[in-house]
Amino acid sequence: MESDGSIDDGERTEFLEAHLEAVRDAVAAGLPLRGYFVWSLLDNWEWAWGCSRRFGIVHVDYRTQKRTPKRSAGRLAAFLRS
Known about the structure:
Blueprint lengths: L9 H19 L29 E3 L6 E3 L1 H11 L1
Antiparallel strand pairs: 1-2
Helix pairs in contact: 1-2
């Protein structure tokens, strides 16, 4: 967690941005896109790694269950607003 309380997930943010640009291009080319799903919304228990890896765009403090949107969540929100 950063000093300002945010969660920096740079690799996920870059990955998501690339896919969102591809989505935007596909829609501009006429693809009738009805939805887009981000895997995964929340950090959760994974079969292969338990709680040791985090995949979500929202950080979960497993002890307190507090949820904190990561920077990738902010990027997705900005894309949806545009």
